[in-house]
């Protein structure tokens, strides 16, 4: 006879409890920790086993058991984090919920976002209390963050194509991430930066003199991290074709080449297409529009920009180009390839969840790829 574990007591909700839990769980902008706990209790109340609830919600089995026991013992109050030793809280759970909901779902009458002062005036709580609530729930209404959504009609196909190259590169072939860092400015600060002092950042003036620009063409090898590069004063299809010729002479002739590029106009001119037709070992893979994050060379550009260009002064384009060439030579002496871990399915699932958050509906173009 198979052994059975300790019987799980049934979980029955009152109408008021079910209404409150449903409100906590379905608000897309509510605190996600509390929303997940509410979803666990609602699923358990429907008679679903702890194992099935954990699988459906993507949480650990012990997490389901913990909040089920806590709810049976303390009901709705048990879903709030346990009280710590010390003075009892001076504000109620309803007040905390009102502050969180107002922060996420409303805006002040005469401003674009809440401040501690404006929220304190609205709620009747102190500014320090508002600050503690925001810290506890990870809310930062004063800090905006930018994002960009691709409108490319072939978004899914291109993501699957590029990520497939990262995870399964073809045999007897080289995969190169290609792009241009255009209009790199040679700037000379006047006066020069002052020395770094304890307790303060490096003082720099906003004034500068422009001494010309250059453009860096780079091809990042995803296998070993080496970079093929060229510097040109102009950024046209003619320069890009010359760079393709440099790649052609650099990579051994017995290897095919798969180039990951963006949709910039210089990559798709008739002259470039004709050149690619005459060189059949080149295979172009275009990234989705507005999705530079998927091209690994963009990350490499960041490694170059921060330590070498952003805070450096250059009195001429020649000195700027000499610095860039020296840095690339040093990089190629000890190259570091990047490790791409996310699959195309994980990327598309993540974007689908993001679309649900901002629109409340599943975005048709971002269904998981199968």
Distance between the termini: 43 Å
According to CATH, the homologous superfamily of the largest domain is Ribonuclease H-like superfamily/Ribonuclease H
* Number of distinct beta strands: 5
How many domains make up the coordinates? 3
Q: What is the CA-atom radius of gyration, in angstroms? A: 28 Å
For the biggest β-sheet, the strand order reads 3-2-1-4-5
Helix proportion range: 40-55%
Describe this structure in words.
Helices cover 44% and strands 13% of the residues. With 370 residues, the protein is an alpha/beta fold. The chain has three domains: 9-82, no CATH class; 92-145; 155-333, Nucleotidyltransferase, domain 5 (2-Layer Sandwich), CATH 3.30.420.10. It has a five-stranded mixed beta sheet with strand order 3-2-1-4-5. Helix 2 runs antiparallel to helix 3 and helix 3 (50-57) packs across helix 4 (61-74). 20% of the residues are buried.
Notable traits:
single chain, 370 residues, alpha/beta, Nucleotidyltransferase, domain 5, 3 domains, 5-stranded mixed β-sheet, extended, disordered C terminus
Give the structure's gist in a few sentences.
The protein is of the alpha/beta class and 370 residues long.
Task: Break the fold down into its secondary structure elements and pairings.
Blueprint: H1 15-26, H2 32-45, H3 50-57, H4 61-74, H5 93-105, H6 116-123, H7 127-136, H8 155-167, E1 173-189, E2 208-221, E3 227-232, H9 237-250, E4 256-261, H10 270-278, E5 282-286, H11 296-309, H12 317-333, H13 344-359
Parallel strand pairs: 1-4, 4-5
Antiparallel strand pairs: 1-2, 2-3
Helix pairs in contact: 1-2, 2-3, 2-4, 3-4, 6-7, 8-13
